[in-house]
Amino acid sequence: MQDTIRSTVTEQPQLKVQHLNKRYGKGCSRCTDPTFLAEEGQRCPHCGSVWACIDVNFDLYQGEILGIVGESGSGKSTLVKCLYFDDQITSGSAHIAAYKNGELDIFSESAQQKRYIRNHLLGMIYQNPWLGLKMSFSSGGNIAEKLIASGSYHVGSIRARATELLEHVEIPISRINEQPKNFSGGMQQRVQISKALANNPPILLLDEVTTGLDLSVQARVLDLIRNIQRQFNVGMILVSHDLGVIRMLADRTMVMKGGRVIEQGLTDQILEDPQHAYTQKLVHSLLS
Ligand SMILES: Nc1ncnc2c1ncn2[C@@H]1O[C@H](COP(=O)(O)OP(=O)(O)OP(=O)(O)O)[C@@H](O)[C@H]1O
Ligand SMILES: [Mg+2]
Ligand SMILES: [Zn+2]
């Protein structure tokens, strides 16, 4: 019985994104279908709007890490921001298996339902911890905020959960009442991770979590991410411009360029046999 349930769950993607387009700017009659833009182009030559994501399609399965790699401006952050409802999409759809059985497009839901999805089903870790944390709250307070948003009100259990989460990311409990603005970059990212995990979401979005950290600190955060994947069986979208990070963690990888997904597949396959010229260049520079 258990196995049947598990196999049904794993067959259906946890998240399915289809034809996602995101335009910054007003748009014009000539760019209503952005696929007309030249392969490299994101800016409409007629109205100057930027198409940050163009016809993005992918699935995320339970418990897997999907890496997104691509050069600066290729639309990686925009994609995760759209999924977390920080930015509004221009068109497209996304279905989450844990939300009404994956039957409804989350982008078409009401603001209230979107808040529910964000608070209960998603966790986000921003590249910039100032976006993900309230620096004037204590680290425990940051976790409490997320727990309260997802419907926990009991002070004792909130405190117990915050303690457990901080322990998990190896933040000394003695610092639970301290503001994360006094923490190092690596510690701030670990507080963000604990906050994102607070509501046990099936999907985590991680945008350049280790960018800008010292190599040894990076390694600890990457280790933590791997442990979380093993323990919590959560599906993760891991954005990085660093193919080395992607190689270490991602089961499957999606390569973005100019707002488009130019290649996707098993990470090993992409590293061994990159198809697109841009991916070949990326892989060669990693290996050389
Ligand atoms: N709020 C905004 N208003 C206008 N244009 C934007 C906005 N946010 C992003 N863009 C544009 O959208 C495109 C994609 O940006 P995005 O931040 O998603 O790229 P990225 O792949 O995350 O890059 P990086 O690796 O530098 O973080 C870029 O051309 C960027 O200038
Ligand atoms: Mg980015
Ligand atoms: Zn246009």
Compact description:
Keywords: ATP-binding, Nucleotide-binding. The chain has eleven helices and nine strands.
Characterize the structure shown.
With 288 residues, the protein is of the alpha/beta class. The chain has a single domain (2-287), classed as Rossmann fold (3-Layer(aba) Sandwich). Helices cover 39% and strands 21% of the residues. It has 11 helices and 9 strands. It has helices spanning 2-11, 76-83, 111-121, 129-132, 139-149, 155-168, 185-197, 215-232, 243-249, 267-272, 277-287, and strands at 15-24, 50-60, 65-70, 91-96, 122-125, 203-207, 235-239, 252-257, 260-266. The protein has a 6-stranded mixed sheet, sandwiched between helices. The chain has a 3-stranded antiparallel sheet with strand order 2-1-4, with helices on one face. Helix 5 packs across helix 6 (155-168) and helix 5 packs parallel to helix 7. The radius of gyration is 19 Å and the shape is globular. The termini are far apart. Residues 1-9 have low confidence and may be disordered. Magnesium ion is lined by residues 76-77, 208.
